[in-house]
Amino acid sequence: MYIGIGAALFTYEGYYLLHQTPKLDVLLLLSGAATMFVYLLIRVAAVSRIKEYAPEKRWDFFTRNLFLMQVLTVITFLITVVTYLMLPRSIQVLLFFPGIISLLYGIPIRFGKTNFRLRDIGVTKIFMIAFVWAFIGSFLPATNSELPIVSGDVILLFFAHYLFIFGITLPFDIKDLTIDAQHQVKTIPAIIGIQKSYNLSFLSLLLSTLLYVVMQQLTTSAQDFSLPLCITTLLSSWSIYLSRKKADNYLYFGLIDGMLIIQSLLVIVFALN
Questions:
Q1: DSSP character for 88?
Q2: Which of 36, 41, 188, 242 has its Cβ near the most Cβ atoms within 10 Å?
C-alpha cells in the first residue's frame, strides 16, 4: 500500500513538474492499484523462494498471512483491470510496454525445465525498475495532459526521474547481495563492489537534480520547483548514507522508498504556497 501510494503521488507530481493542471482522476487510482498488484503478485508467485530465505520479520509476516496477500492480489488486479478499461485509448496503448515489463519482471516463465524471470537477468533489473517508474512519472501525466511525449520537457523529466529512481534503488541491490548470490543473479554491486555502488548512487542523484533544475529553468514563465527537488536529493543522499552504517529494513523500505512520497509531497506543498 505504501509503495502504491508512492506511485500515485509520483504520477501526480508529474503534472506539476510539466507545469500542467493536476488531474485527480482514474489514472492515479490505476497507478496505485497496479503497482500494489504487481508487488503482491511477484511475492505470491515467489512464495516457495521466500520460504527458503533467512528468517526475517517481513517474510514471516507474508507467509503467515499468505491467504490475505492472495486476496489483496485479486482485489488490486480487479481494480487495475477496471481502471485500465476506463482510460482513453492513447493511455491504454502507452501502458502496454511498461505493463509487460512489470509483470515479466517477477513472474516466472517456464522454458523447458527452467523458470525465467526478467529480474534474473542480473545487472539489467535496476534499469528496468528505473524505466517503469520514470515512465509513469513523466509519460503518463504528459499524455493525460495531451502533451507530445517527445517534447523536450517530457524527455528531460523522464531522464531526471530515471536517474532519481536509479539512485534510490541501487542501495536495495547492495542490501540484497546475499539473496541475489543465492539465486546466481549478478547485480551492479556484485560486479563493481559495494563502495563504488554507493558512489554511483550519489552520482545518479546529483545528475538527476541537475536535469530537474535545467528543466525548470527552461520554463521561465512557470513556477520553479528546483528547491523542493534539491531538498529531496539531500534527504535521499542522507538516507543512503545512513544505509551504509545500518542495514535496517525500516530504513530501506520506510525512508529510502519513502523518498518517492517525500519528493511528491514537497513539490505539491511548494505549488500550493
A1: -
A2: 36
pLDDT above 80 for 179? no
- Across residues 224-243, what is the average pLDDT? 90
Query: Rounded CA gap, 199 and 137, in Å?
Result: 25
Cβ partners under 8 Å of residue 184, min gap 6: none
Cα separation of 104 and 214, whole Å? 34
Q: Tell me the three-class secondary structure of 94-134, residue by residue.
A: HHHHHHHHHHHHHCCEEECCEEECHHHCHHHHHHHHHHHHH
Angle between helices 66-86 and 57-64 (to 10 degrees): 80
CA atoms of 70 and 224, how far apart (whole Å): 44
Percentage of the chain beyond pLDDT 70 is 85
Q: What's the pTM value of the predicted model, to 2 decimals? A: 0.89
Confidence of residue 97 (pLDDT cuts 50, 70, 90): confident
Q: H-type helices in 176-225, by residue range?
A: 177-182, 188-192, 194-218
Bridge partners (DSSP) of residue 114 are 111
Contacts with 155 (C-beta within 8 Å, 6 or more apart), sequence order:
none
Choose among 123, 117, 122, 121: nearest CA to 105.
117
Angle at 37 between CA 33 and CA 40, to 5 degrees: 140
Give the residue with greater pLDDT, 263 vs 244.
263
Over range 153-170, report the average pLDDT. 94
Is residue 43 within 8 A of residue 51, CB to CB? The reply is: no
The pairing of beta strand 114-116 with beta strand 109-111: antiparallel
If one compares 219 and 200, the residue with the highest pLDDT of the two is 200
